[in-house]
Amino acid sequence: MMRLSRTKLGRRAVQSAVVIWLMALAFVGGNISGYSIRSALAAEERPTQFTIFWEAWDYVVAHFVDREKVDFTAMTYGAIEGMLASLGDEGHTTFLHPDAVELHQTSLEGSFEGIGAYVSMADGNVLIVAPINGSPAEQAGILAGDIILEVDGESVEGKSLDQVIFLVRGPADSEVVLTVSRPELQEPLQVSITRAPIEVPSVSWSPIPNTGIFYIKISLFTSGVDRELEAALREISEAQTNQGIILDLRNNPGGYLQQAIQANSQFLPKGDLILIESDANQNQTVHRSRGLGYARGMPLVVLINEGTASAGEITAGALKENERAILIGETTFGTGTVLNQFGLSDGSAILLGVTNWLTPNGNLIKGEGVTPNVEVTQPISSRHVDADLLRNLTAEQFSAVEDDQFLKALEQLGVELHASPLLNAVPYDFVTHD
Question: Is-above-0.85 flag for pTM?
């Protein structure tokens, strides 16, 4: 899901992997507040440039020939979306239609209704990155690499990722028909999917057989990440053999800032700098590791990619710049701003970036992202390993793993991938902080 450091902020912004039941609106990263309606500027304080907006509006109302297509609400919402887009905080600052406000809030609580698939925009196409294990999408036969052409017979050509997601998601037990193209098929394929409640734990984990290494995936920094992560690390810390942790932050679109701070505190020594917030007046707030941590001495490798955003980037940046972990993968999304939600009078809202996030070394994340220590690129359609796969991984299954980033992480933690047909870990000397 994008990289300025490799050229293309515009391309990065549209390639970000999102969860179809989560909606692209979950790229929010941080300090989400409740509704907050600010009083409008007095008429005399409004910019003089705004006069031309009303001039254009009046010309449309008075002269546009297709009268049935003049929709004042759509025109207003479009103007707001254009205004926010001009700020350049792509994938973060955004406008929420009234029906999206509640969906946005529930998206941060870990429970959704939809088909259950990760999607991205790649080369102008809406691409299925991967169906979620056990999801309606997977059960219906949707595959990684499928390209969505139509939703219920409506072409998605020219539509934004957000617009396609709104078409696809919907209430449980309702049906949606996707027309997809698949590389090995000459003709488009129609797939009927019955939507369902999707509940994915924000934290999933598993030991990696025969290695002494543990895999942890944080999919989203929801309100329960602190408890879920602590419970996982308690069990891991009690394991007799522990040669390290692979922390998977790929395709993590963000979430609550405080949850990211709590997560970092599990890995970083107390008092280590996690991030700096800088507001419009250059006032800065410093956040440091605090409390107890159950993984402060464990070897740690972190997986990141272009879909790692917001709170995920804060976590990756803090662990890298405190020299606590090796980052493997691809440069992250680059949307490091704290969002506040401001409600509008008709039930719509804007998510507005009000402070920038800086890494411990003072580096701006927005528009830049966090770079890996070891760059490993792989196709967007590559199947990532997950905790379900790893719990019962056989040698045959391991030989078929195509997740190069994960395999590189194993090597970084001392696993000799080609020494034996079975996974075989060797001692590994890793710099950690006590």
Answer: no
